[in-house]
Specification:
With 414 residues, the chain is α/β, with parallel strands linked by helices. α3 packs across α4. The mean pLDDT is 95. The chain folds into three domains: 170 residues, 3-Layer(aba) Sandwich (Molybdenum Cofactor Biosythetic Enzyme, Chain A); 78 residues, 2-Layer Sandwich (Alpha-Beta Plaits); 155 residues, CinA-like (Maf protein, Alpha-Beta Complex), CATH 3.90.950. A hairpin with a 2-residue loop joins β7 and β8. The chain is built from 15 helices and 17 strands. InterPro entries: CinA, CinA-like_C, CinA_C, CinA_KH, Competence-induced_CinA, MoaB/Mog-like_dom_sf, MoaB/Mog_dom. Pfam families: CinA, CinA_KH, MoCF_biosynth.
């Protein structure tokens, strides 16, 4: 079965809201082995909506719509669909009672306009809305299926799980299982070249790279009769990829770099302090996203000025005068100073030029130095980054945490 997801709503086209429904539905359909080949968005316009139905059904067996089921005149999803299939809508008494009960429960009188939401063709399968007013429906016409769902994500998810999933399961033929590997420290083009033959020869499972800010993900997807068989297909491909990419594979699934680093610190009881200049607290805040980090995170210093670096971290005045605030020497003294002030096993420091101004030929915008104090040893690293101020700060955080991850593994002999 080929599926298409059609989101209805001018507010999505204008960018006023993000279409998270398509992401959710695609993931759930993949678990059923139903492949989504297209996703579309159309505004609240009857003519364009009808064209969208015609296009969707010309290339899909199943079309799932979200949105446009409200009581107002511009909510047209059902009405245009019924016209497309040549079906007359009549009042569905059970749906009307359900809508009335909803309003009674919240002690609000129902407006007459809500009656519109209870009209459906006689042969439609009605999907009850357990958390809102708008019922949905399923129309099956020959070999085509239309499923109409509400737009609010909470209502859509409830109806999808409670009503549409049980209906679709009778069409289920196998499953699609995916495993995502997260890679950092290697760019997308480099990853693709290192596993080019695997990608080119992948049929089942398939392997696809996706670039994200500061990292790359590889999705391995297998189609099989059940999850166990799919995982058996995925396993050898995953092993080959891990063997080639080595420690650049930092995790899998939805894990983040701060989760991986936070877990390493907590499990090994490595205490840490962070001293920041150009990142202005962003590095500390990112690491603190990890629950339980309070067991090892001792202090964070935002030493933006030279005076603060001298006073809080004991950076030598002559080092700042000779090498400048943006230098490997200053980064080293910041890291060591933070570790000694906090009494920690590990300390990180960041100092750089995030822009947009302040750069020079010798020290351009995007030049960042990071310091690391780990078990009595001080190391530094230089980054040359591009982008606007926020992108440079974000990239500094990601690369710094990745460097720390590798150094901790090295310290542990892994």
């Amino acid at each position: 079965m080929k599926a298409e997801i059609l989101a209805v709503g001018t507010e999505i086209l204008l960018g006023n809201i993000v279409n998270t429904n398509a992401h959710y539905i695609s993931n759930r359909l993949a678990e059923l082995g139903i492949e989504v080949y297209h996703q579309s968005v159309v505004g609240d316009n009857a003519e364009r909506l009808k064209e969208a139905y015609e296009l969707a059904f010309s290339r899909a067996d199943l079309v799932i719509t979200t949105g446009g089921l409200g009581p107002t005149k511009d909510d047209l999803t059902k009405e245009v669909a019924f016209d497309y299939f040549g079906k007359e809508a009549v009042l569905h008494e059970e749906s009307l009672k359900s809508i009335e009960n909803f309003f009674n429960t919240i002690n609000i009188s129902m407006d007459k306009s809500n009656i519109k939401q209870a009209y459906f063709p006689k042969d439609a399968i009605i999907m009850n809305n357990s958390v809102g007013t708008a019922p949905g429906c399923i129309i099956q016409e020959k070999d085509k299926i239309l499923a109409v769902l509400p737009g609010p994500p909470r209502e859509m998810k409830a109806m999808f799980e409670e009503c549409l999933i049980p209906y679709l399961k009778k069409f289920q033929q196998g499953v699609l299982e995916s495993k995502t590997l997260r890679i950092i420290g290697i760019g997308e083009s480099k990853v693709a070249s290192m596993i080019e033959d695997i990608i080119d020869n992948s049929v089942n499972p398939t392997v696809a790279p996706y670039a994200k800010e500061g990292e790359v993900t590889l999705r391995i997807t297998a189609k099989a009769k059940d999850p166990e068989e799919a995982n058996e297909l995925i396993s050898p491909v995953e092993k080959e990829i891990r063997d080639r990419l080595g420690e650049a594979v930092y995790g899998e699934g939805e894990v983040s770099i701060e989760e991986v680093v936070g877990k390493l610190l907590v499990e090994n009881k490595f205490t840490i302090a962070i001293a920041e200049s150009c990142t202005g607290g962003l590095l500390s805040g990112t690491l603190i996203n990890y629950p339980g980090i309070s067991e090892v995170f001792k202090e964070g210093f935002i030493t933006y000025t030279n005076e603060a670096k001298i006073k809080r971290l004991k950076v030598k005045k002559e080092v700042l005068e000779k090498y400048g605030a943006v230098s490997s020497q200053t980064a080293a003294e910041m890291a060591e100073g933070a570790a000694k002030a906090s009494g920690t096993d590990i300390a990180l420091s960041t100092t750089g030029i995030a822009g947009p101004g302040g750069g020079s030929d010798e020290k351009p915008v995007g030049l960042v130095f990071v310091g690391l104090y780990i078990k009595g040893e001080v190391k530094t690293k230089e980054f040359n980054l591009i982008g606007d101020r926020q992108r440079i700060r974000n990239a500094t955080v990601i690369r710094t945490l990745e460097w720390l991850r590798r150094e901790i593994l090295k310290c542990l002999g892994k």
